[in-house]
Every structure is written in structure tokens, then in C-alpha cells.
Amino acid sequence: MGDRDTPTRRQFLAAGSVIGTAALAGCNGIFSGGGEETTSSTTSTGTTSTGTTSTSTSRDVDISNWRGSSPLVQDRPMPGGPSITEMPDLEGELTLYIGGGEGGLYQQLATLLQKHYPDFTVHTRYSAANQVLTEGQNGQVRADVFWANDAGSLGVVEDADLAASLDGDTTDLVPSRYHTDAWTGVAGRARAIPYNTKQFSESDVPDSIDAFTDTADLDAKMGWAPSYPAFQSFVTAMRVLEGEDATRSWLNGMQERGHGGMSQYKNEWYVSNAVADGEIGAGIANHYYTIRVISSRPNAPIDLAFTKNDAGALVDVAGAEVMKDTSNPELAQNFVHHLLSAEAQEFLATWSFAYPMIGGVDPVEQLPALSALNPPDLDLTKLANVQPTLDLLRQTGVLS
């Protein structure tokens, strides 16, 4: 992999500090590694409102109010791209369904937007795609906007003809592979290979996911988190791209590789920490867990490698769509447009270390640019068909 065109991602930081306790508490533990991602079958009946107590009337934007508190992001340049100061005001009441993910981070961004616009109130409910579908079948979708943690959930709602077409000035901001006419990605996450830099260099890590079944290609004890939704999406992508037989062969091969097969972990935060601890030499995880490890442990011997044009290089997105039956389509469209503002994208890039979806906002400097990644050519909405993947994981003994 030494001939990769992916740029060098980072030099290890010599100094830094753990993210402040207040920031951690405010994000409901998003950096603590709990399994924040959920499947599209998970629902919650709790409804909250962010309130209307803000007295701010300024349209000036202080980027420090939107930027994360990690030492990794303190010296970032000002983001480019469209600012909320260039967009129509958000005014009125909006009902937002949030379908899993990021431990309250999406709620916080909605709250920030509300604080900026004193005449805007957003009511949030944690409800996944099946709740939207159930309401749609009864002809009473209550949401104005559905913000999902994965493209598969967005696609299910779109396929049920419950989503309206988005404004072109919104979707034009996002690369074509990360939006349709009905939904747009707002934050990306890449599958990656965290590896221990005391044991390996980047050139030691294969750039094909198929090569990992052979210890000769990477002589390392490895780990994964097969019960974790992101891992199941990755295996679903492999099944769609390569077929069930090839995916079964890969799963069996990974379990039979040297060093006693694969170490299993609860989620990919634990996988990434195990790499940093030297407990395993490499793992399979979403990219941002490694960055979170680095943020809290600046000298941790961990870095990221990426495969090319296969399921191991999958880039999935969290995204949003406007409900067709919304009673306030103009506000709903404007809200989704705001999620692609420079300020909102900076928030997502620096709090969750997600990949921004718009030009002008960079990922954290420890990551290659989104354009430098090599994801497979895949309709992301097909990732919703996870049941055959679960069956396959159980058949192969990866899941009990």
C-alpha cells in the first residue's frame, strides 16, 4: 500500500488535553464510545422541545460557538461554503424526527440553530424510519423533517413515497453519490482500518479487504465488533457488491486467520482503543473512533489506513429529508439547507469528526480529504436490507 495516492494523515501530536468534562456532558457521552449508532428498527416515544428562551437577536456568527472543543480542532481555518448569514431566517415551529446516532449531537445542532433564530422553535422526537413508515401508513406523518443516521433509513422512507423533493440549491452542494432528489447526506463516515503504529506502518496494511483473510498479508491479531450496526452495514455492502457466497467465504476466512481468529468487541470504540493499547495490531471500524482516541490520548500509537473500491472503503452518510405531508414545506426545506451551511458542517466535522458534505469545510487534519477516498460504486439505500446479513453472520458463527 506504499504506492497509495492517499495523502499522509497525521503526525502524532506531542501535546494536547482531553476534551473538557462540560463538553462531554453536553454531548451525552459521544466521545465516551458507547454504541451511539442504532438500527432503523429502533424507536423512541420521547418527545422534547428545545424551548424558546433564547433572547439573542444577532445574526453575527461566532464560529467558536459551533466548533468542537477537542485540541485537534483549535487551530482550524475558518470554514468556507455557504454561511447561515446568507440563508433566509428560520422562523416558525418545526417537528424534527431524529433516527438514531451521535448521542444527542443532532439535537444540539438543532438547539444551536434555534438560539441563532429567536423566532424559530424545533420540537425533536427520537423516532427511526419504521415510526415514519407506520405514521405514513395511517396517513398521519407528524414530522416535518426526518434526520437519519444512515442512508438506508432515508431510502426506506423515500421508497414509501413519504419524502418530498429537495430544493436543487440544497442538493447541488453535495456530491452526487451522497444524495438523491429526496434526501441529502449531511455527514459522512468512512470504513477504515485502525492499526498500531508501533507494530506496523501504513504500507504494511493491505488496500483490499479481501487480503485480510491471509495473515501473510497482515501479520497481526485483529478485532471487530460484529454486533455493531456499522459493521453490519459494511457486511451488507460486501454482500451487495460481491454476493452472499463470497461474503460467507470472507467471514469464514477472517475467523480462520492466524493469531486465533478475530477478537470480538462490543463496539468500534473498543476496537480502536484495543488497537491503541496494542491488544490487537489492527481492526475494522468507522474512521471517527480512531480520531476520538487520538483526541483523548494524543500520543496513542494509532493511525488509519483505507482500502480501495470495496466494502472496506464504504462511506455511508447521515442525512435528512423533508416529509411530503409537512404543513410548513418552506421552513422544512430551509432547515435542511441550514444543515449544509458552513457553520453546521463545521459543527459536525469538529464535534463528531464526521466527513463534511460540502466544499469549503475540511475534515479534521488527521483525515484525508473525502475526495481522496475510494469508496465502492454502491447505492447506499441498499444498506437497509440488513436481515440477510444478520442471517449470514449467524450462519457463519460470527454472531451467536
From TrEMBL:
The chain crosses the membrane at residues 12-31. Residues 37-58 have a biased composition (Low complexity). Residues 35-81 are annotated as: Disordered. Keywords: Membrane, Signal, Transmembrane, Transmembrane helix. It comes from Halarchaeum acidiphilum MH1-52-1. This is Ferric iron ABC transporter, iron-binding protein. The keyword rRNA-binding does not apply.
